[in-house]
Amino acid sequence: MASTSDIRKGLCIRYNHDIFKIIEFLHVKPGKGPAFVRTKLKSVTTGKVLDNTFSAGHKIEDIRVESQKFQFLYKDGEWYHFMNAEDYTQIRLLENSLDTPELMKEGENVTIQINTEDNTPLSVDMPQYVTLEVTATEPGLKGNTATNSTKPATVETGASVNVPLFINEGDIIRIDTEKGAYHERMKQ
Predict the structure, then answer these.
(1) Per the count of CB atoms within 10 A, which of 29, 77, 108, 151 is most buried?
(2) pTM of the prediction?
(3) Which GO MF term does the entry hold, naming one (predicted)?
(4) How many other CB atoms are there within 10 angstroms of residue 155's CB atom?
(5) 6: which DSSP letter?
(6) Are 181 and 162 in contact (CB under 8 A)?
(7) Which residues, at least 6 apart from 166, have a Cβ–Cβ distance to it below 8 Å?
(8) Do 2-62 and 129-185 agree at the fold level?
(9) Considering the domain 65-125 in this protein, what is its CATH number?
(10) Selection from 128, 130, 81 nearest residue 103 by Cα
């Protein structure tokens, strides 16, 4: 058993007869009244996100998880197939159990949290940044680097990302997977 002081991003807990992953949390100590923790929980079975508030010192049932490195192989309908980097076993996960599946390209290395009680995969943690090629966007104009204006661009995985005006088709960009936003242009 853990308490609210043990809450951290990525912690998997059992709550309301389901397993949830903590996406966001905020410890709040108001000037009047008791402290509490405001959380955003994502169900690992349904993908549903809900907001919940725990009072300070509340006991929570944490799930013992093990992190393993996997490589993304391919997408088959709504199933995503992964291969364990150590023993080459394969698993498949539904699209709703992934946080940002649209930014995942074949061969990408990810960390999968596995429940040690029954060996079921709970969640997939992407690397902080992914490097993708821009496949479609409007042409950039010379000198458009001084403003904060953006335009939509499609990357090689099919995801749409807002990028600065100077980005062209064929450019390689880094994308922040947590926000799903453009981070920087890579040198070619």
Answers:
(1) 108
(2) 0.73
(3) translation elongation factor activity
(4) 25
(5) G
(6) yes
(7) 140, 141, 144, 145, 185
(8) no
(9) 2.40.50.140
(10) 130
d(CA 26, CA 160): 30
Q: Write the single-letter amino acid at 157.
A: T
Q: What token pair was written down for 67?
A: 């992190």
User: Using one digit for the tens of pLDDT, what is the confidence trace for 102-155?
Assistant: 888 889 999 888 888 888 888 788 888 999 999 998 876 666 566 678 888 999
Judged against a pLDDT cut of 70, whether residue 101 lies above it is answered with: yes
Q: Where are the domains of the chain?
A: 2-62, 65-125, 129-185
Does the 2-62 domain belong in CATH 2.30.30.30? yes
| Burial of 93 (C-beta count, 10 Å sphere; 0-12/13-18/19+) | buried
DSSP 55-79: ETT-EEEEPPEEEEEEEEEEEETTE
